[in-house]
Amino acid sequence: MAIGPGAKAELAPAGAKRKRRWAGAQAFVFLAPFFAVYVLFTIWPMLKGVQISFFKWTLIRKMEYVGLGNFSKLMQDAEFWASVWHSTIFVLLTTPLMLALSLGLALIANRHSRLRKLYRISFFMPSVMSVAVASFLGLFIFQPYTGLLNSLLHLVRLLPAEQEIFWLSEVSLSWIAITALTLWWTVGFNFVLYLSALQEMPEELYEAARLDGATNGQIFRRITLPLLAPITRMIMMLQIIASFKVFLQIYIMTGGGPLDKTRPVIQYIWQTGFRQNDLGYASAMSYVLFFILLALSALQYGFNRRKEAD
Amino acid sequence: MKWIYRIVSLLVAAVFLLPILWMLTVSVKEEGMPIVTVLDWVKPPYSLAVYGEVLQATKLPLWVWNSFFIAVCVTALTIVIAAMAGFALSKIKFRMKAAVFFAVLAGLLIPGEAILIPLYQVAKDMGLLNTYLGLILPSLASPIAIIVLKSFFDGVPNDLLESVQIDGGGNWRIFFSIMLPLTRPAVASMAILTFIGSWNNFLWPFMSVTDDNLFTLPMGIPTLMSQYTVDYVKPMVINTISSLPIFLLFLVFEKQIIKGVSLSGIKG
């Protein structure tokens, strides 16, 4: 039965039972489309993945049962753990910078100025680009000799004319380039979240603080930042989980190189499955990825619970 | 002080726009011109010849269309499916509701990336590789959309629904004539996020499609880029053609899109 004590409450008890069944049928109809796609394309592949990971399973499906073989191979696969570490590096690099940058941009766009719209548009515009377009722009920007960044550095004489920076062929410089491109391309969403949080700040608090003679710096540290704490926590956790799944921008900009030193875990899984034709091993690695992401989500949940209890 | 602040702000905005402006200017340059300094990129001669060439000789326009078509289908279906489920969980009383809701919540913990390999095998068994259906169907189950929409539906007062029931309206009428219109901002916000997500979806099409008539932009663009030799003109034309439709959409609906994104954070 729908929606609380209804208008037709005068019906006989037998009718009430029929109605409850009717409501159940209706609920089923409303839920069925979701559960159909959910079971077929999420739950079933998850279970199938368990099966596949116990086999030597190739794209043309020649199978051989190997038990936990794939998993024990994985424990000793230095390249796999290196790729997990590379994804972790990416998370560690982008998350704090993302928080600082998105808040900084929100503060800029939150000022009462005729240019507000311009700021909103310029900070969010890169976010609507396709990941491939953004990644290729990154590739071209950081190219030696012909790239935008080196040319600009030459123009303002920060870089001597005969010298070039090889952004994408040295590991640490590659990380800088990848991080910068990612921040530029994805900061828009978090910027908007911060901006809307800033716009909901209670104005009276600021006025009271100013009356008490607080400086702008004090107001920011004592009022703005604490009030932003919940949204900061949310952005941080979403960012950590999203960053761990990085793939295409690294794949396009460095190909995972130099010498696989920037290859993220998703790229390694994909190469194992589709380049080396080993779906079984790739599935086993997917499960490790799954548990890492699960642990991060659980961490987020526990963290939020404790903070909310405070 | 105020001026310094303003100049710094403008500089930051310029840095954000610079790559896009660079892309646009290089795309209208004539091919094969020597680039010695940055300024050569903005200098004439200009030409749109490469645009014609790319539009005619490559499948890029088809891929733009594919990306749009798939994103529109995925968005519309995801939202309808999620809204229906969210409505049932919010406003219909039935047995085992808690268990059903828990099953939806559990879906939040399953990252799409972690099940792609077995999903490939499942899609292969179902004959969905290299089909539009295969590009659309696996993206439709969105637990997060259900949870966000349900929380907005919860806010619709039950009195309103009862008044429809007194008039003899059933759940479908309540759903279409009350719930969806009243929660339009939330629905729009989920739709925008779903659209952008689909527009950028790369891994699944990359694995499941080999027929280049079915490529979406993120897959197609890299195949074209490997062919450039002379300079950046052709790549930038490719980038620009791929981006212009979505840029225009963004500039027209800027307010709604920004609002939609910020709404998603409130309940997220």
From TrEMBL, chain A:
<feature type="transmembrane region" description="Helical">
    <location>
        <begin position="165"/>
        <end position="195"/>
    </location>
</feature>
<keyword id="KW-1003">Cell membrane</keyword>
<feature type="transmembrane region" description="Helical">
    <location>
        <begin position="121"/>
        <end position="145"/>
    </location>
</feature>
<dbReference type="GO" id="GO:0055085">
    <property type="term" value="P:transmembrane transport"/>
</dbReference>
<dbReference type="GO" id="GO:0005886">
    <property type="term" value="C:plasma membrane"/>
</dbReference>
<keyword id="KW-0472">Membrane</keyword>
<keyword id="KW-0813">Transport</keyword>
<dbReference type="InterPro" id="IPR000515">
    <property type="entry name" value="MetI-like"/>
</dbReference>
<feature type="transmembrane region" description="Helical">
    <location>
        <begin position="84"/>
        <end position="109"/>
    </location>
</feature>
<keyword id="KW-1133">Transmembrane helix</keyword>
<keyword id="KW-0812">Transmembrane</keyword>
<feature type="domain" description="ABC transmembrane type-1">
    <location>
        <begin position="84"/>
        <end position="300"/>
    </location>
</feature>
<comment type="similarity">
    <text>Belongs to the binding-protein-dependent transport system permease family.</text>
</comment>
<feature type="transmembrane region" description="Helical">
    <location>
        <begin position="284"/>
        <end position="303"/>
    </location>
</feature>
<dbReference type="InterPro" id="IPR035906">
    <property type="entry name" value="MetI-like_sf"/>
</dbReference>
<dbReference type="InterPro" id="IPR051393">
    <property type="entry name" value="ABC_transporter_permease"/>
</dbReference>
<dbReference type="Pfam" id="PF00528">
    <property type="entry name" value="BPD_transp_1"/>
</dbReference>
<feature type="transmembrane region" description="Helical">
    <location>
        <begin position="27"/>
        <end position="47"/>
    </location>
</feature>
<protein>
    <submittedName>
        <fullName>N-Acetyl-D-glucosamine ABC transport system, permease protein 1</fullName>
    </submittedName>
</protein>
UniProtKB/TrEMBL annotation, chain B:
<keyword id="KW-0472">Membrane</keyword>
<dbReference type="InterPro" id="IPR000515">
    <property type="entry name" value="MetI-like"/>
</dbReference>
<feature type="domain" description="ABC transmembrane type-1">
    <location>
        <begin position="64"/>
        <end position="253"/>
    </location>
</feature>
<comment type="similarity">
    <text>Belongs to the binding-protein-dependent transport system permease family.</text>
</comment>
<dbReference type="Pfam" id="PF00528">
    <property type="entry name" value="BPD_transp_1"/>
</dbReference>
<feature type="transmembrane region" description="Helical">
    <location>
        <begin position="132"/>
        <end position="153"/>
    </location>
</feature>
<feature type="transmembrane region" description="Helical">
    <location>
        <begin position="63"/>
        <end position="87"/>
    </location>
</feature>
<keyword id="KW-1003">Cell membrane</keyword>
<protein>
    <submittedName>
        <fullName>Integral membrane binding-protein-dependent transport protein</fullName>
    </submittedName>
</protein>
<feature type="transmembrane region" description="Helical">
    <location>
        <begin position="232"/>
        <end position="253"/>
    </location>
</feature>
<keyword id="KW-0813">Transport</keyword>
<feature type="transmembrane region" description="Helical">
    <location>
        <begin position="99"/>
        <end position="120"/>
    </location>
</feature>
<dbReference type="GO" id="GO:0055085">
    <property type="term" value="P:transmembrane transport"/>
</dbReference>
<dbReference type="GO" id="GO:0005886">
    <property type="term" value="C:plasma membrane"/>
</dbReference>
<keyword id="KW-1133">Transmembrane helix</keyword>
<feature type="transmembrane region" description="Helical">
    <location>
        <begin position="174"/>
        <end position="199"/>
    </location>
</feature>
<feature type="transmembrane region" description="Helical">
    <location>
        <begin position="7"/>
        <end position="24"/>
    </location>
</feature>
<keyword id="KW-0812">Transmembrane</keyword>
<dbReference type="InterPro" id="IPR035906">
    <property type="entry name" value="MetI-like_sf"/>
</dbReference>
